[in-house]
Every structure is written in structure tokens, then in C-alpha cells.
């Protein structure tokens, strides 16, 4: 089946209403159209180019080898010929005929204005006119503009039938378009994995179709040293992707992998191929960081962190220049990238000198400009030369607004939206968590604000007001990036395409349109990318088998409803097809060892000691079939699809006992990877071990191999290949999606990651208001009372002096008090929580609810959550009690001493308890979240360790702190009630009995005072914190709209629950439990302080 018939059939199945052009096409600026439409089938198969325009080439781009308009027209001729399965020709002509009677496609000069969003003129603009039912005109402001117009026409052809489609081809239709930004780029990390020239050329072709303009080729790097993969740094993988030819001694930086490099002719071919499609290759050679390729050759040039260069060594900079001198003549571009990121901050002067020296040397040597990554270089003596282009990638490394103010040109590669980590995100390494597939939600809903479509001037997802002005002077555009932080064996070459596939289309569209252009339709993006990608000219990265009925039915429907793509039996002629990409089901029978090979990989059944093993071989790495449980293999971790953590139930041992004859079924999609059934029984999958880094959370990740179909050898007896996947025995439905959008699991960075900051600001505001209430003002970072300034110091001298050892004693006493009481109250808390969140138990009293739980789940269920409770309140209790002593003393000092503080004592109690609780809750929150999971979700885990680990791998830091703000709403009122009411109750008792009786209290009587006041405080703490406690328990169980943040869910649930449920449901058990907790804590705290000889706390009670 021809490509024309393929996209026609798929268009009929999908429907034009489900598609949009990428980038979207501006509306027609013509007032006149007719009912007639352009029909390419009835158009002469000739492309005419105006001779006066044919030899034009653009000089305002970055390439040094700009194609002429005729060159671009030749590329267009080849593309449309293949797309429509027709033989189109190209002719130069001196002028055009009357279009109303003409037939063909006409290419020439656009004489109107075309500008970037900053107002500067560009040769990338174009005009497209439908001039008659048999003719179309495309005019370019330059050669590239004309070429981009041909990309638009190809997309219109694909998405239109002669009866109409999404982009009107009505006669009279006219549109003009130009990119908002010049830099519309994508980066591929080829420094941690080798990519073949053919793959790189296909990737350029794909990007060009969506009007991308730059390919950032990151050609040198090393596996991160902090990931712990090797005992010796000299064994850590490093790579340099170009083959030195003139200075052959430089081959030492290749470390034996000369066969995984591009020669000069290879690289020139790549540059010419990319530029023929409007894409300039921007090469990057890293230094002075990420330099293991160099320091393994010359160890004497390294700092103690071995992938950093010692810039003070006399041979370092000459060696770096020696490498650049070899390759600068290869680079047919006006700009190159020298890396220069993640270097030692303490060596800022050395770093700045290096960057400036390299920039000036490169410019003098080759007349090229230099780019670097934005890097924090806190030198107070030196600055980066303004001529250097800064590629911003992370806040804390550079500030985009400041970069522009300093006079640099700027490229937006902010990692929050731009970065992917091929195959596996960085979890649990924090703070960066880069998804394995491009997170399109972050472009369609920038800063997690629904409907805010990103553009290159949008940098800051955290402070929405801190963006660069659209079209700002110096803002070049944007580049997305796919990184191989997991190493060369963690993915195939094609899996890099799956990671970038949607990102290239979306970033290209938004960088082209900018603020002024047409926004994307979020409902059509996914369908449109899936529709276009198999038919983009000069590539087949989807590895579509085009000689079959692949698209005779929509992709994703049941494979049982279509004929096989290939059905072969021994004795029949083998039809070589190359490879079949996502998604597929491959069924094989064999009576002995065999091999299937293709251009991308090979699959073999090989002899082993116990039988046979099944092995994929790709990019020089072997991936044997490994034993994985059905559950682990077929049920995806929603937060980390395809990832199986090391503490799961699977053994991951190599399967070596396959006997023949055998029936083998392999199903493959990008999320599950390649799964295997042997004789109908699920056996496992092909996978790779991924090192977790500093946190040592290792995992096994899926490998998604294309089906090799070019050559067959050995004992294969039959082969059936179907399009689509049915996950047998997964219990989760049939087909899986195409290479996915990243809209779940690790999609949004969410406001939850900033709740700590927000809460801190709230504490700051509260404290400021409290200080102002006391009649204080802040001057030069000192608190001074508005009156009686001299008395402040005098009264402060009456305060006790606490040494660090005193705070250790306060912490120890508070920790013991809290962990003993909360641990002992675990059964009560279990029952209380179930009454709050389990509809079946609402209305039951404590005794009946406890009996119900014990009867259904056993008595041990009443101790669920004991581990996180004991540990959590150990650290929280110590921090809270010690913090209260600390902040109460500080606030008393600020008030002017104990005597003046008496009149403000209630405010001091409130401020000290709230502030202490805030910091204590930072420690408590992860353990409290784990406890709630264990208590409210039966069977969640066996205890603290397994529950904490499960939550860490499934939800990460955001999961632990997703309930932080609701926790504050619970714990701060709890602490305020506990301490403030306790202080008031103690004061009331002492005032009642008088100072003389107070001075003669026995130990038992003093304990009774603590106990009584603790009970009163417990009632207050329970009542004040109960509504938030109810909501937090429900949220941690999963109630509410999970698409919202925890705070929004809390208010949503508050409305749903109503006042009665919030205030009263479960309140009796909570008061009972809280009174015991609070009273017990104060008694134990007082006894422990006395036992260890801790100093008494600050007392500011009013005695009369």
C-alpha cells in the first residue's frame, strides 16, 4: 500500500475534525474564496520555481552552507512525490502565467513583510495562496520561508480530501506566516549514548516537518559519577561522538569506541541533510565539566571530582583548545556550544576566565560565536563576556531576566518544561524529576495553570509574574532536551525518539507561534502528532511497515479485527520488511535456535545449559528475557510506568529453560516494553537495570524493542505479526497507546512542591503581625520596643540562659513524651481514622468500631501504623517541645523581658507554638502521610519501612508533602490549643491556689496540675484540629479531585462533608484520644526534664 493510500485511509478513520496543523495555520487574510477547492489529483505534476528566486540563499541564518531556494524546491519535489506516490518534476521558469488558468505548484518570492516577534525582519516568512482548482503559489521572504511554506502545504495535503478538511484549500484562500523566534531547537544527548548517522538524519527530518530550526548535538559527556555504577571513575562510561582524523593522538579520548563515532564525512553529510530541511546542527563539546572523556586520557588535568578539569593546570586549556582545533573546521555553523556548566562555584574566577578565553579564541580562530549553559559563577571580580549566548536551564544556575539585562542573548531550556530523562526519571534523586516522555501538559498548562500555553518568553513556573517580555531583545527562542542520564544501555536509539516525539512537535509549534500566533487546540494535539508522525518525509522513526494493510483500520483497535501485517510459514518465501515499530504483537513458533535480524536490532533463541534463552541485541548490548511476575510486568506503576523497583516480587533472573518446539508471543509498546509469553504462559520481559544514584533506589526498566524483520535464520517455523497490543492476563483492557503523552504520574510540578515556601511566608506574616501587636518595630535587623528602649535589655537579663545542651534535653524529653503517648494511642487512632473515612463505620462508637476491625482483620490491625507513628512523633515531638521553649524565650526577649511579656503572654504562646509546630511538621509530614496510608488503606504495606518505600517510589517527595498545608491546618491549631490552653489552665490553677500553696506543692500534686491542665488543653486541641484532621485523613485515602492540589481538595471536601460531619463525626473518640495524649505528654515531659536536670522553661504567668 502506498503512503498516499495509508494517510488517506487513516484520515478517513480519524476524521479531519480530530486534527490540526502543527504549527497551527493562521486564518486566511483573504476576503474572497470560492466553493471550488484545489485538487492535487487533477493538478499537473510540476513544480515551477521563478528563476529570479531560484538561486537565492539566506544569509541571516546560522548555517554556513545555506541551501538555495532551488535546493529547497528539490527537497520538496522529492517529498511530495513520495507522499502522493506520483512523479513530480521541477522546472525553472522566467515568470508565472495567469494563475486562474495555470496548473501546478508555483514557488517564488514573497514581497510582503515578515518579522520575528521582536520586530526584526526574517527570511523565514512565507505566503501560501490557492490560486485555482489546479494551482497553488508559495512565496518566501527567503529560501527557508519558501521551504516552511511547503511544509504547510504537505500538512494540508495530508489532512484534506478533495471535499474539504481542517485547513481550507478553497480557491482564494491566502495566508501569511512567520516564526516568532529564530531558535526552535531540540537537543539529543549523544555524549552518554551512541546514535548512528542515519538515526540523527531521520530525527532532523522529523523535526523539520514541525518547523524546528536547530539540532543541538550534545556530542561529549559521561555517565553521572554520583550514580554509583562503578567502583572506579576510570571505569565510568564516557563518550566523544566524533572521530579525530588530523590529530590522531586525540583518538585517546574515544577509549576504544572508534566504531561509535562520526567521521568528518559522516558529520558533513549529517549537516548537509539537516540544513537541506532548514535545520542547523549546533555541536557541543563539554568543558570544563562533564569531561571524563578527557580526564581518563589525562588524569593529571582533573580535580578531585574526576569529571571536572583543573583549569589552573598549565596543560588544561591548551588541551581543550587542541580538541576544538581539530573539529572547528568540521562545523558548518556560525555558533558552537562549549558546555561550561556545573563547575565548582568556589572556582568562579577560574571558570569565568576559561569561558571568556575560549570564546575569544574560538571567535578569533573560526569567526564563530560561542554558547554556554547558564551557570552560577559567583565571581565578584569577573563577568562573562556579553557576546556569549546563555542557554538557561535551571533557576539557581541563571536568572533569565538578569541574563538579558546583562546584555547576553538568551535561549530558553528551562528544565521544568524542556527536559526529559530517556527511559527513567531521576526519582528518587531530588529536586529534578525529568519525565521519561516529554511532558506536554507543561506546555499546554504552563506553571500548572490551565490554558496557559507556553511560549519561549515563559521561563518561571514558580513565580508566574517573573517572565521575560514576549519578543524581548536578545531572546532567541527555545530548545527542548532529551538526556541519557541512565547510560548507554538503558535505551535503544529509537527510544530517544519516543521521548522526544511529542515534544518536538509541540515545542516547534509554540516557538513558531509565540504570543502573537494561533494557540494549539489541546483536544487535538495528541491525535495530530500520532497522525503526522508516520508520514513525515525522509524518515520512518515509527518503523511503519508500509507494504501492508497497517492502517486499514484505526491504530488501537483490537488486533482480532484485522488481518495480520505479516503471516509466514516455513517453506514460503521470506519477505524482508526492515523493522516494525510500536505497537505490535509478534507470534513465533520454532523447533530450534533461530535468529531474526533487522536494521535496528536482532532477536535470537540461543542454546543455554538448561535449554534455551531468548535475547534481543541492540546497539551492541544484549538483553536476555528475564523472569518478571505477571503483575509487575503487565500492571504499570502510574507514577513511573515501566519501572519495577528492586523490592518488588520479581526475581529478574535470566530465563534459560525454554525448550523446543516452542510458541513465543512478544507484545511491545513503549510503556510496558517487550513482554513475552512462552507456550501461552507469561514469562517476563526484556529490561535493563537502572542505578538510582545517591539514594540507591535501583530499579528495572522496560526495553521497548522494534520487531526485526529483515533476515531470518535457523529453526523458525512460523511468524505472525499483528499491529497493536493485547496485554494478556493484565486485567486492564486491550490496546495500549502509541508513544505517549506525559500527562500522568510525573506530569505536573504542581503547587504542592511550593507549599513549604508558602507556609513559611504565612508564618513570617503571622510573626510580623505579632511583633507589631506588641508595639515593636524592626530596625537594622534588631527588635526595639517603641518605648522604654533601655528597659528592654534590663528585663531581658532576667531570662534564663539556655545552652545547646538544654535544648538537647528539651528535645529528648519532648521526643520521649510524644512517641510514648502517640505510640500507645495507635489503636485509638486506627479506630478514629476508620470512623472518619470508612462509610461502613460511620455512626459506630469506639468499642463497636474496634470490634469490627478486629473481627474482620485480626487484632493486629489495631496496631497498623505504629512504626511511622512512633518514629514520626519522636522527631516531631522533640522539635515541637524544644522549639516552643526556644521561640517562647525569643518572643519574650522581643517583648522586653518577662515582666513586659506578661501583658502579651497569650500572643507569645500562640506565636511560639505555631512557629515551633511549623518546623516540626516538616519532619513529621512524610511519616504522617505514611501512617495515614497504612491506617486508611488496608493492605497498603506491612509496616513503616515498606510503606515509606512504596510511597517514595510511587509518589516521591510530592507525595510525602502533598498534604503539608492541610497538615498545618491540623497540627498548628492542635499545638496552639495544646500549649496556649495548657499555659492558661496552669496559670488559672496556680492563681486559684495562690503563690504560697504553689510553692509547697508535693511532686504528686504538681503532677496533678500538669495532668488536669493537660486534659483541658487536650479538649481544646481536639476541637480546634478536628475538622482538618478529618479532611487530611480523607485526602490521604484518595478522596477529592486528584487533579487538584491538596489545599484545593481540602476546601472541596469541606464543602462536600458539611459542618456537621466536619465538626462532630469522630469528635468523641478524638477528644478521648487527644486528652490522653496531651495530658500524658505534659506529665512525661515534666518528669523527663526533671530526670535529666533540664533548666525550667520561661514562665510569664500573671500571678494576680
From TrEMBL:
Q: Which reaction does it catalyse?
A: Hydrolysis of terminal non-reducing N-acetyl-D-hexosamine residues in N-acetyl-beta-D-hexosaminides
> Which ranges does the UniProt record give for the Solcar repeats?
805-890, 904-988
| Location within or outside the cell | Membrane
Name the CDD domains on file. GH20_DspB_LnbB-like (cd06564)
Q: How does it sit in the membrane?
A: Multi-pass membrane protein
- Its Gene Ontology biological processes? carbohydrate metabolic process
- Asked if the record carries the keyword Transcription regulation, the reply is no
Enzyme Commission code: 3.2.1.52
Q: Where is the active site?
A: 342 (proton donor)
Q: What is the official name of this protein in its record?
A: beta-N-acetylhexosaminidase
Please name the GO terms that the record assigns under molecular function: beta-N-acetylhexosaminidase activity
Species of the source: Pyricularia oryzae (strain Y34) (Rice blast fungus)
The reply on keyword Hydrolase is: yes
Q: What is the lineage of its organism?
A: Eukaryota, Fungi, Dikarya, Ascomycota, Pezizomycotina
Which keywords does the record carry?
A: Glycosidase, Hydrolase, Membrane, Mitochondrion, Mitochondrion inner membrane, Signal, Transmembrane, Transmembrane helix
Q: Give the family, as the similarity comment puts it.
A: Belongs to the glycosyl hydrolase 20 family.
Cellular-component GO terms for this entry: membrane
Which Pfam family is an annotated match for this chain, by its short name?
Answer: Glyco_hydro_20
* Annotated signal peptide: 1-18
Q: Report domain Glycoside hydrolase family 20 catalytic positions.
A: 181-485
Give every Beta-hexosaminidase bacterial type N-terminal domain span: 118-159
Q: What class of enzyme is it?
A: hydrolase
Amino acid at each position: 500500500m502506498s503512503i498516499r493510500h495509508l494517510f488517506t485511509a487513516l484520515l478517513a478513520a480519524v476524521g479531519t475534525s480530530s486534527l490540526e496543523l502543527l504549527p497551527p495555520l493562521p486564518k486566511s487574510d483573504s476576503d474572497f474564496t470560492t466553493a471550488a477547492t484545489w485538487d492535487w489529483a487533477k493538478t499537473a505534476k510540476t513544480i515551477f520555481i521563478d528563476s529570479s528566486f531560484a538561486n537565492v540563499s539566506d544569509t541571516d541564518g546560522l548555517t554556513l552552507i545555506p541551501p538555495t531556494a532551488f535546493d529547497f524546491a528539490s527537497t520538496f519535489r522529492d517529498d511530495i512525490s513520495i507522499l502522493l506516490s506520483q512523479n513530480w518534476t521541477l522546472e525553472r521558469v522566467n515568470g508565472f502565467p495567469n494563475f486562474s488558468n495555470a496548473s501546478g505548484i508555483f514557488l517564488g518570492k514573497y514581497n510582503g513583510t515578515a518579522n520575528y516577534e521582536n520586530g526584526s525582519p526574517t527570511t523565514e516568512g512565507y505566503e501560501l495562496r490557492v490560486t485555482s482548482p489546479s494551482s497553488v503559489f508559495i512565496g518566501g521572504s527567503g529560501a527557508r520561508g519558501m521551504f516552511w511554506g511547503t511544509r504547510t502545504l504537505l500538512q494540508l495535503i495530508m489532512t484534506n480530501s478533495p471535499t474539504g478538511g481542517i485547513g481550507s484549500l478553497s480557491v482564494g484562500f491566502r495566508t501569511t506566516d512567520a516564526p516568532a523566534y529564530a531558535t526552535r531547537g531540540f537537543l539529543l544527548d549523544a555524549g552518554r549514548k551512541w546514535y548512528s548517522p542515519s538515526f540523527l538524519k531521520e530525527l532532523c527530518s522529523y523535526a523539520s516537518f514541525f518547523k524546528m530550526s536547530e539540532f543541538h548535538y550534545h556530542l561529549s559527556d559521561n555517565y553521572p559519577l554520583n550514580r554509583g555504577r562503578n567502583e572506579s571513575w576510570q571505569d565510568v562510561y564516557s563518550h566523544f561522538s566524533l572521530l579525530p582524523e588530523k590529530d590522531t593522538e586525540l583518538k585517546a579520548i574515544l577509549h576504544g569506541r572508534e566504531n561509535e563515532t562520526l567521521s568528518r564525512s559522516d558529520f558533513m553529510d549529517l549537516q548537509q541533510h539537516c540544513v537541506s530541511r532548514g535545520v542547523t546542527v549546533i555541536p557541543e563539546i563539554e568543558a570544563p565539566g562533564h569531561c571524563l572523556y578527557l580526564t581518563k586520557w589525562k588524569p593529571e588535568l582533573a580535580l578531585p571530582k574526576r569529571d571536572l578539569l583543573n583549569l589552573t593546570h598549565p596543560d588544561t586549556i591548551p588541551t581543550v583548545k587542541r580538541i576544538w582545533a581539530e573539529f572547528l573546521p568540521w562545523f558548518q555553523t556560525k555558533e558552537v556550544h562549549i558546555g561550561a556548566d556545573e563547575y565548582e562555584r568556589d572556582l568562579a574566577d577560574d571558570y569565568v576566565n576559561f569561558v571568556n578565553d575560549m570564546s575569544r579564541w574560538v571567535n578569533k580562530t573560526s569567526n564563530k560565536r560561542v554558547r554556554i549553559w547558564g551557570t552560577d559563577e559567583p565571581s565578584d571580580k569577573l563577568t562573562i563576556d556579553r557576546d556569549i549566548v546563555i542557554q538557561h536551564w535551571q533557576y539557581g544556575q541563571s536568572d533569565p531576566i538578569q541574563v538579558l539585562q546583562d546584555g547576553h542573548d538568551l535561549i530558553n531550556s528551562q528544565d521544568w518544561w524542556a527536559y526529559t530523562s530517556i527511559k527513567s526519571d531521576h526519582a528518587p534523586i531530588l529536586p529534578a524529576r525529568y519525565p521519561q516522555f516529554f511532558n506536554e501538559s507543561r506546555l499546554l498548562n504552563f506553571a500548572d495553570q490551565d490554558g496557559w500555553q507556553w511560549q519561549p518568553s515563559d521561563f518561571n513556573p514558580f513565580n508566574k509574574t517573573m517572565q521575560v517580555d514576549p519578543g524581548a531583545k536578545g531572546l532567541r527562542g527555545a530548545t527542548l532536551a532529551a538526556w541519557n542520564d541512565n547510560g548507554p544501555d538503558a535505551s535503544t536509539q529509537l527510544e530517544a525518539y519516543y521521548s522526544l516525539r511529542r515534544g518536538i512537535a509541540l515545542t516547534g509549534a509554540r516557538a513558531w507561534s509565540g504570543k502573537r500566533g494561533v494557540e494549539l487546540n489541546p483536544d487535538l494535539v495528541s491525535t495530530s502528532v500520532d497522525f503526522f508522525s508516520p508520514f513525515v518525509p525522509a524518515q520512518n522513526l515509527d518503523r511503519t511497515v508500509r507494504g501492508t494493510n497497517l492502517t486499514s483500520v484505526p491504530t488501537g483497535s483490537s488486533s482480532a479485527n484485522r488481518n495480520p501485517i505479516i503471516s509466514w510459514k516455513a517453506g514460503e518465501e521470506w519477505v524482508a520488511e526492515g523493522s516494525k515499530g510500536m505497537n505490535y504483537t509478534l507470534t513465533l513458533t520454532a523447533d530450534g535456535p533461530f535468529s531474526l535480524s533487522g536494521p535496528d536490532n536482532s532477536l535470537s533463541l540461543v542454546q543455554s545449559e538448561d535449554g534455551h534463552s531468548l535475547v534481543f541485541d541492540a546497539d551492541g548490548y544484549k538483553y536476555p528475557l528475564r523472569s518478571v511476575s505477571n503483575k509487575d510486568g503487565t500492571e504499570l506503576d502510574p507514577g513511573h510506568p515501566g519501572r519495577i523497583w528492586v523490592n518488588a516480587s520479581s526475581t529478574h533472573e535470566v530465563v534459560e529453560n525454554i525448550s523446543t518446539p516452542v510458541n513465543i508471543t512478544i507484545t511491545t509498546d513503549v510503556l510496558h516494553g517487550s513482554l513475552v509469553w512462552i507456550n501461552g504462559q507469561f514469562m517476563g520481559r526484556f529490561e535493563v537495570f537502572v542505578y538510582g544514584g545517591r539514594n540507591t533506589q535501583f530499579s528495572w526498566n522496560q526495553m521497548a524493542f522494534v520487531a526485526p524483520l529483515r533476515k531470518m535464520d535457523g529453526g523458525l517455523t512460523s511468524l505472525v505479526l499483528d499491529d497493536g497490543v493485547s496485554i494478556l492476563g493484565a486485567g486492564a483492557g486491550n490496546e495500549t497507546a502509541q508513544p505517549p503523552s506525559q500527562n500522568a504520574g510525573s506530569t505536573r510540578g504542581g503547587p504542592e512542591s511550593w507549599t513549604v515556601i508558602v507556609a513559611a511566608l504565612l508564618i513570617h506574616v503571622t510573626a510580623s503581625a505579632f511583633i507589631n501587636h506588641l508595639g515593636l518595630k524592626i530596625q537594622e535587623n534588631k527588635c526595639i520596643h517603641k518605648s522604654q528602649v533601655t528597659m528592654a535589655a534590663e528585663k531581658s537579663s532576667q531570662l534564663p540562659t539556655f545552652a545547646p545542651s538544654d535544648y538537647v534535653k528539651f528535645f529528648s524529653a519532648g521526643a520521649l513524651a510524644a512517641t510514648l503517648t502517640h505510640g500507645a494511642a495507635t489503636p485509638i487512632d486506627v479506630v478514629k481514622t476508620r470512623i472518619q473515612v470508612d462509610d461502613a463505620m460511620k455512626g459506630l462508637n469506639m468499642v463497636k468500631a474496634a470490634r469490627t476491625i478486629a473481627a474482620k482483620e485480626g487484632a493486629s490491625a489495631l496496631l497498623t501504623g505504629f512504626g511511622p507513628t512512633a518514629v514520626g512523633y519522636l522527631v516531631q515531638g522533640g522539635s515541637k517541645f524544644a522549639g516552643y521553649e526556644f521561640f517562647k524565650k525569643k518572643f519574650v526577649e522581643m517583648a522586653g523581658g518577662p515582666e513586659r511579656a506578661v501583658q502579651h503572654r497569650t500572643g507569645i504562646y500562640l506565636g511560639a507554638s505555631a512557629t515551633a509546630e511549623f518546623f516540626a511538621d516538616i519532619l513529621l509530614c512524610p511519616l504522617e502521610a505514611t501512617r495515614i496510608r497504612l491506617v486508611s488503606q488496608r493492605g497498603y504495606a506491612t509496616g513503616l519501612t515498606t510503606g515509606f518505600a512504596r510511597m517514595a517510589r510511587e509518589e516521591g517527595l510530592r507525595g510525602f508533602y502533598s498534604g503539608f498545608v492541610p497538615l498545618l491546618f491540623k497540627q498548628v491549631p492542635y499545638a496552639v490549643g495544646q500549649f496556649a490552653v495548657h499555659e492558661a489552665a496552669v496559670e488559672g490553677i496556680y492563681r486559684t491556689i495562690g503563690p504560697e500553696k504553689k510553692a509547697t506543692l508535693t511532686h504528686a500534686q504538681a503532677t496533678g496540675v500538669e495532668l488536669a491542665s493537660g486534659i483541658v488543653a487536650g479538649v481544646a486541641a481536639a476541637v480546634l484540629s478536628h475538622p482538618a484532621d478529618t479532611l487530611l485523613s480523607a485526602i490521604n485515602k484518595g478522596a477529592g479531585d486528584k487533579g487538584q492540589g491538596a489545599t484545593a481538595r481540602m476546601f472541596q471536601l469541606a464543602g462536600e462533608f458539611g459542618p456537621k460531619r466536619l465538626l462532630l463525626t469522630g469528635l468523641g473518640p478524638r477528644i478521648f484520644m487527644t486528652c490522653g495524649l496531651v495530658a500524658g505528654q505534659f506529665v512525661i515531659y515534666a518528669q523527663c526534664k526533671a530526670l535529666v536536670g533540664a533548666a525550667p522553661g520561661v514562665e510569664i504567668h500573671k500571678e494576680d
